[in-house]
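Course assignment 3, question 2. Fill in each field.
Student: A.L.
Task: Predict the tertiary structure for the chain below.
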Amino acid sequence: MAETMPLDGRTVVSLTSDGASAEVSLVGARLLDFGFAGRPYWTPGAVGGGDLTTLGADARIAPLVAGDALWRVADHTGGTLTLTVEADDLPCAPAIVFSVGSWGLLVAHAITNSSDRPVTVGIAAQVHAHAGDTPVLSLCGEAPEDLADLVGPDSAGVPGRPTAGAEFDVQVGGARTVPGGHITHRLAFGGDRHGDGVRIWGDEDFAWTRAVSGADTLRLELRTYGSAAEPPSWVIDPGQTRGLYWGLQPFEAHAPKS
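Answer field:
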């Protein structure tokens, strides 16, 4: 039976399973924390998650769901949380599943067109991965030669760029998927934890990635469309459901679950 919020009335839900943990806010369906094997892999204090956009009646880009909307708990069992949201003017029935386990963190978006007309939708996942005080970022995609240390066709073969104290704002596309159909970026620990880190992965529909580093912060934005000024590209027909996955996989974890 669906609940409007946890029985204790809180708007933050904790997930734990197989050494992985996360905290999710019901306000905006936002990810607040993620850890694995007792180590933090999410920037402290950062708020992330998937932003859903659509084309309004005037053909302008608009949020599909308000950022401060209170999502409802449809199911919560151990390491898995399913959220839904309803509104009178919402042409779709979105659902988000947050799940943690031996694979790390998995976030699944499912959008069902409950209207009588096609609906155009886009998703941008705001990811605040954490890998200590001296992280090194490697992105998967196509990029100019001056970004050869940061971007390559396979992020595993890219030297990577330290992000601590660095300022850059780059957008890449053309990423090559790895077996399983995922696009994978890497954020590695520097210093005394060489070889440790976290993979930031998404379905191939996340064709574009924006990386912003500055003031000791790092944010990755996995997008199904090129930029904030471009219209979303998913067209969902009446009665159709489309799904999309992204997540975080610590290097020591098993393969992503999808």
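Instructor remarks: The chain is about 0% helix and 50% strand. The first strand starts at residue 12 and ends at 17.
Grade: pending
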